[in-house]
Each structure stands twice: as C-alpha cells, then as structure tokens.
Amino acid sequence: MTTATYLPSAPTDPWRAHPTRIVSTVDETPGVRTYELAFEEAGIRAGYTFAAGQFNMLYLPGIGEAAISVSSDPDHCGTIAHTVRAVGNVTDALARLAVGEQVLVRGPFGTPWPLDAVEGRDVVIVAGGLGLASQRAAIHRLSRRDDGGRTIVLHGAKRPEGLLYAADYDRWRAAGIDVRTVVDEGDAFWIGRVGLATHLLADLHLDPAATTILCCGPDPMMVGVAEAATNRGVSTEHVFLSLERNMACAVAHCGLCQFGPHFVCRDGPVLRYDRIAGLMKVPQL
Ligand SMILES: Cc1cc2nc3c(=O)[nH]c(=O)nc-3n(C[C@H](O)[C@H](O)[C@H](O)COP(=O)(O)OP(=O)(O)OC[C@H]3O[C@@H](n4cnc5c(N)ncnc54)[C@H](O)[C@@H]3O)c2cc1C
Asked: Angle between the 219-231 and 273-280 helix axes, to the nearest 10 degrees?
C-alpha cells in the first residue's frame, strides 16, 4: 500500500445534498441491500472523494435523512456504494426504490480508519454484523497493500445467512487477506465456527507491538474486542472503534450525536480507544 496522505474528505458545502441515481443494487443478506449510486451533476461525479470509514447522509425528500457509511472502493469514486439495513423511515423507503430512481447525498462526513498509520503493521479488522459495511472501503485499499503487513478480517454474524459480503471473501483471500467468520448460532449446513468475534481474536497469533485493530459492531462487542486486544498487549492507541449514534446535522451543530466531549459526526465515527474507553462504559451514552 502506498503511504500517500489519507485525510478525510469534506464536502465544499456540507448542507447541500446532491442528486444521485441508483445504478444497481445487490441483496446482501436478509433485509440488507447495497445501492450503487451515480451523481447526476458531472462536476460532483468527477470531484467526489471519500476516505474509508466516512459516511454520507442519504436524503429522501419528504421522508428524511440517514447516516450511512460508504462501502465502496475509495480509489474508484465514479459510483459509490452504501449497504443499508431497512430498519426505519428512510431505510424502509430506500428499500422501496428501484434502479433509476433518485437519492440525494450530502457528505462525506466524519473521521476515517487510520490507513495512513498502518504501514508495515498487521491490521485486524473485527466486524460484527453490518459493521463490516463501514470497513469494506478499508478492505478494498488494504487488498492492494505491499508493505509486508498482514490484513486479517474477523467477521461475526448472528446466523450464517447474516454474514455480509460473502461473495467477496474469495477475492479478498486471493489478495492475501486472512478472512475468518463466526456465527452465534449455526444451521444444518454450517460447518464453521460457532461463537463470538472475540473467540476469533483469541485464536490469532498477534505481535501486539505491530498490530492495529479496526473494530465496528454493537457497543458491547466493540468493548469486548478492545479489552481482549489490550489485555494481549495491543496499545489502546492502536485500537480504533467506529461508533454509531443517532445523527441529524452531521456537522456538529445539533448535538444529537454528542458522546461526552465528542460529536460522533465530526470527531468520529472512527475514534481511538484511549480517547473513549471510559465513555464506552457509561450506560446509554
Ligand atoms: C456513522 C454512521 C454510519 C452508519 N452506517 C450505516 C450503514 O452503513 N448501513 C446501515 O444500514 N445503517 C448505518 N447506520 C445506521 C443508520 O444511520 C440508522 O439505522 C438510521 O436511524 C436509519 O434511519 P431510518 O430513518 O431508516 O430509521 P429510523 O426511523 O431513524 O429508525 C431507526 C431505529 O429507531 C427505531 N425507532 C424509530 N422511531 C422510533 C421511536 N419513535 N421510538 C423508538 N424507536 C424508534 C426504529 O425501530 C429503528 O430501530 C449508520 C449510522 C451512523 C451514525
């Protein structure tokens, strides 16, 4: 991987939503669909960039906006992908749209995964369920690394049909990525591991001084992973979590996503564990 500076991208006008068209969709897992979007304005299409881990606000006029990670390759922004679970107003309405229909996009926002600080280090991506969507852009980039560091993806889901991007695993493995999966509960066809993502982490041979952990999933899972990693000697400065909190403005004005002194939309979603370890243990923060 090159060491080119990999700073977050920012929209020129963070309030302006730009029209896109859905160019294709992929049904990933039950209730989860990836939407490939193309900006309609040629200038935006040519100039839009994002960094792995950042998110957009997807806007459906008359319905509302939802924060959604960009899940495509940051080095190919001709179209951008978002992987979405239908859980409420905006995401349910999105699920009713067809290819060719319009979605407005505001962004990109937030902090990225620290890919400019992993040169030569082993990177362990730990993903619970849909958390992998926020990490897929990083996996795209890491699949091209040539700096000697290992990339390991540990992905847990409740059930086998919930494993995200299963069609990508062979390609990731062919690029040298060690992909391991685990499910809470198997089925008649599951011959893989049953357990938690932390069990996969426990299986790994780690060089703690040369390992960076990138984790996204439910809060208790992220705390479990962060504690397991730091107990094995990985510095809290090399553990990064991507937080999900309700958001509205995405520009640190409204305060909806406030997390202690942090606005998750601006200071996150990716935050270094040493800065948030105490806050992660405060119930319902
Ligand atoms: C940085 C970031 C990145 C994200 N990336 C993704 C992603 O890649 N993919 C993805 O699918 N999601 C992602 N999310 C989560 C997504 O933004 C939320 O799920 C969002 O709320 C969906 O918007 P909605 O309008 O569809 O749902 P909402 O209508 O806001 O509903 C969301 C949840 O709240 C519940 N709810 C709604 N109204 C009420 C009420 N009155 N009382 C109690 N409960 C209620 C719903 O049942 C549902 O469980 C991300 C969030 C953040 C902060």
From this structure: 120
pLDDT digits (tens, 9 = 90+) for 83-129: 999 999 999 999 999 999 999 999 999 999 999 999 999 999 999 99
Q: Residue 131 sits in which domain range?
A: 115-280
Last residue of one domain, picked from the residues 109, 136, 166: 109
CATH number at residue 163: 3.40.50.80
The Cα–Cα gap between 3 and 120 comes to 10
Encode burial over 101-137: b for 16+ CB neighbours within 10 A, e otherwise: eebbbbbbbbbbbbbeebeebbbbbbbbbbbbbbbbb
Q: Residue 240 and residue 185: Cα distance in Å, rounded?
A: 27
- What CATH number corresponds to the domain at position 56? 2.40.30.10
Q: What is the DSSP letter of 269?
A: B
Which residues, judged by CB distance below 6 Å to any ligand atom, belong to the binding site of ligand 1? 55, 64, 66-69, 83-85, 87-91, 110, 130, 133-134, 244-245, 247, 269
Given ligand 1 and candidates 244, 254, 257, 262, which is best to mutate, with the most ligand atoms within 8 Å of its CB?
244
Tokens coding 254: 């409204």
pLDDT tens digit string along 169-187? 999 999 999 999 999 999 9
pLDDT tens digits for range 137-163: 999 999 999 999 999 999 999 999 999
Domain count, the chain: 2
Q: Does residue 138 sit in the same domain as residue 270?
A: yes
pTM assigned to the model: 0.95
Identify the bridge partners of residue 218 per DSSP, sorted by sequence position.
none
Adjacent-strand bridge partners of 258: 263
